[in-house]
Amino acid sequence: MIVKRTDLTPKQNYTWIDARNIDRDDIAVLTDEYMIPSEVLADIMDQDEQARIEKEDDYTVIICRLPNDDEDEDNPLVRTCSPLGIILFPDKVVTITKEDSVVIDDLARRRVRSCPVDTKEGLVISILGRSALVYIRLLKYINRQKDLVEEQLQKSIMNYELIQLLQIQKSLVYFTTSLAGNEILLEKLQKTPFFKLNSEDEEEFLEDAITDNRQAIQMANIYSDILTGTMDAFASVIGNNMNIIMKRLTVISLSLMFPTFITGFFGMNIHIPGVDSPWAWLVLTVVCILVSLVGSYLISDRRNKLLLKANSIKKKSPSERKYLARKRQVLKGDDKD
Questions:
Q1: Quick check: is 307 in a domain?
Q2: Residue 131 and residue 182 in contact, taking contact as beta carbons nearer than 8 Å
Q3: What is each CA distance from 334 to 135, 325, 326, 330, in whole angstroms?
Q4: How many separate domains does the chain show?
Q5: Which of 47, 116, 242, 285 shows the greatest Cβ crowding within 10 Å of its Cβ?
Q6: Alpha carbon 300 to chain centroid distance?
Q7: Which among 275, 153, 149, 293 has a CA at the least distance from the CA of 223?
Q8: pLDDT higher than 70, residue 330
Q9: Residue 89 within a domain
Q10: Gyration radius from the chain CA atoms
Q11: For strand 81-88 and strand 60-67, is the pairing parallel, antiparallel, or unpaired?
């Protein structure tokens, strides 16, 4: 889809060629009618193309990376970025993106009133400034989704929640990489001689865009660090829970070994006293149960905790015991009041 736009502002002195969701026919029109080289179009269509600025004889090529606001049905928490090509001619500006973009759509529908789009350079910095704000909005959305996934993960530790956290981390990596490239591009626009701003308003807006882009980078880094720590913490929790389960199973298995050891004697082909008694099976059952309970108590943590508590009480000095007794009396007096 290629649309010519000349009605952004009454003072607009150029023609904006808005090319989005382009197909092969649109590529042919851009190549034949607007004289855009196929090499430039190939770079813009490359999903992994990095942000940069290049000066040619008749035009200037600027490539930046914009966030995609559309959700993927298979991976709803993954937010990707796509390159946007901005080609500056003497009398027109051509913006080319393989997919639709909320940044371009906002400027095309004039939803953003504070952007200086009277000139070509103003349109470029307006796109970059608006993209930084969209990055910030999507980062806040990703952070809210992360909090929801963490709440679900605390209630039920399943693989699905961990996969969602991985998807969020992937989105943060995409955003951090794209924002870093846009930051380098914005700094180059301030220094390059073939991109000259026309007013102080454009210079101030460029500085605001740089500030917003840096804020988005900091937010992405902070959220990524928090997410990494959260995933490490949940991985440790899952490991500890697995160790506790295996410990309990080990205690149960060892407890069942004691009655098995006793019944093994009664299965021998030798005479054992009391075997002929009609109550031998009942005595044997009771003995097995008692031995199993005593064995499970001896190898469980409950006995170890009691021993540690007793040793800690014994090791207390007389002054410590007096202090604890005095503290109990004070607490009892507070309860009576």
A1: no
A2: yes
A3: 56, 14, 13, 6
A4: 1
A5: 116
A6: 40
A7: 149
A8: no
A9: yes
A10: 36
A11: antiparallel
pLDDT tens, residue by residue, 241-267: 788 788 778 877 777 777 777 777 666
Q: How long a stretch of residues is the chain?
A: 337
Paired with 85 in beta bridges are 63, 96
Query: Which tens digit of pLDDT belongs to each residue from 161-220?
Result: 778 888 889 899 999 999 999 999 999 988 888 888 888 888 899 999 999 999 999 999
> pTM for the whole thing?
0.74
User: Is the per-residue pLDDT at 142 higher than 80?
Assistant: yes
Residue-number span of the structural domain to which 74 is assigned: 2-240
- Cβ neighbours of residue 107 under 8 Å, at least 6 residues apart? 8, 115, 117, 123, 126, 127, 130
Please tell me the distance from the alpha carbon of residue 16 to that of residue 18, in angstroms, as a whole number: 6
Q: Which distant-in-sequence residues (6+ apart) come within 8 Å of 108 by Cβ? A: 3, 5, 18
pLDDT digits 0-9 by tens, 77-127: 788 899 999 999 988 899 999 888 888 888 888 887 778 888 888 899 999
Strand pairing partners for 93? 16, 88
Report if residue 293 sits inside a domain: no
- Taking alpha carbons only, the member of 215, 73, 62, 211 closest to residue 135 is 215
